[in-house]
Amino acid sequence: MLRIEKLVKKYGNFTAVNDLSLTLNRGDIFGFVGPNGAGKTTTMRVVAALMKASSGTVYVDGINVAQRPREAKAKLGYMPDFFGVYDNLKVNEYMDFYGSCYGISLSDRKRRTGELLELVDLLDKEDSYVDTLSRGMKQRLCLARSLIHNPELLILDEPASGMDPRARIEMKGILKTLKTMEKTILISSHILHELVELCSCIGVIERGRLVYSGRVEDLMSRLEGRSMIRLRVLSDVDKAVNLLKEQPYITEINGEDNELEIGYEGEQEDMARLLKLLVENDIPVISFSEIAGNIEKVFLEVTKSAGE
Amino acid sequence: MRANRLNNPVLSSSFKIRMRGWKTSLGIVFYLGIMVLIAYLYYITFLGTRSAYQMSVNSRQEIGAGIYTILAVLQFGLIVLITPAQTAGTISGEREKQTLDLLLSTSLSPMGIILGKLLSSMSYIVLLVLSSIPLFSMISFFGGITPGDIITLFTFYLVTAFAIGNIGIYYSTTFKKTVTATVMTYVTIFALGLISFILGLFMASNHYLKNLYPSGDYIPFVLYINPVIGLAQILESQLNGSVGSIIGMGSSRLRYFWIYNSIVMLAIALILFLLSVIKINPVFRLKSRRYKISQEA
Predict the structure, then answer these.
(1) B-contacting residues of A 125-154, CB under 8 Å?
(2) ipTM > 0.85?
(3) Which end of chain A is less enclosed by CB atoms within 10 A, N or C?
(4) Domain A2-221 falls in which CATH fold?
(5) Quick one: closest CA in B to A85, which residue?
(6) Contact B295/A67, CB-based, under 8 Å?
(7) How confident is the model at residue B290 (pLDDT cuts 50, 70, 90)?
(8) Looking at the DSSP assignment, which residues form a beta bridge with residue A20?
(9) Where in chain A is the domain with CATH 3.30.70.100?
């Protein structure tokens, strides 16, 4: 669905994107991760035919974006990280305007507008003026706008940036729905957990180079056998720490006050044995639970080795 | 599935937004109010300077010609003043509002965007100009001015507005800030009007100094880009004066000057329009043989 071949984008002497190649198959959800200024937005803008590449080629569904931009744009929906809205335009008029920009007939525009506003939960706001909506609502509306022509490929540049936690959860819900609709999505975010949960593939870009690209399962497999336990005790923290240090399958112990985070490499039985040991040694355990593996840590390891 | 290809969404959306509020109607009322007030002031001043026995049959035509000239010049001045303000912010304003990328990411062609923006910003000027037609028509009651004269004048207005509109659009695509684009548009219009006039006078006087017995009329080419001369010629021919004598040229070739003037302005407008389309196109490239090769890839 999307093929990027040796993409290079230079601004004078500065190389924003350097020799980036990427392939997304139909239905793939590709998470683009990287620090600010790494080249995520530049790559996405080139894909969306909003910027000319210095060299390299981008194909959307086999269409060369630089040479046939209008045809490529008809197949992709783009949501930028920063965008504005028109004054004096109502939500349904906003959708209608962009629908007409794609040459969609009036009846189809009306139908699509209704469906998409329902998807992003803005149906009750269709007669509201766009500039009166909250930031989260505007983000959702922009997402709906990018879907008005039913594109096969979606390019979402930090779709949840600047949103409060509730709005983030709502946005994540919408993206999960899109996943079920089998759209091919290229999405960038700073929040790795969100991407891992949502994406089928992950790519890390640093200083314009794609330093890691692979399927989420491959990344997750590195977590197998590594777990974290959160332990809360009423007292005797030092005694508990000393006891834990003696166990061979404990890899790390971190914590403050009465709460400890314990890294361990072992089986479920080892975990049960550990709890039993703590209780038998009269450690007043309040809670003992497994927490999600430290994916950021694995991620750093992966990118570090790829970078080297 | 496909909408009417002739329908420009940028234009129709702008129409909807513009006509929604009361500002447009108020603007027209204010605009016409100024014109009526000035016409009325001229009228009572004229009557005040003539006693009843000084009034002749021609006095009525004289009043009509006076009001017509004043309103024609006033409307021209307002077009020159209002058009840059309407057009110079069209693309830079989209950039400032961060809506340009959204527009460019649609299937709308860069030409469609520029055309839509140009026509939508021009629509207000056209509305103002057209709304003054009844006022100009009333002048014909005084005699001396024909409907054909009014059509000629209004055609010239629209051509001038179109040319200035394209200058505004061009700067709007060139500069990121609307303020810069607007200032540059006014500076360019000022340069077109004043510098070409001074240069034209210089060239004409130089020509006549060198040729004491010229075989025909000489019109310096720089004057063809000056719409003020075009307006002066229209008023001159309609009111039977002699602009040629004012600017040092014979009047015979000036008869169709406004048409040549309009053609030159339209040509400049077309060039600027195409340059604007190129500037706004983020992936513009000249088509070459590589196109076919890549299509096969």
Answers:
(1) 142, 145, 149
(2) no
(3) C
(4) Rossmann fold (3.40.50)
(5) B99
(6) yes
(7) very low
(8) A7
(9) 227-292
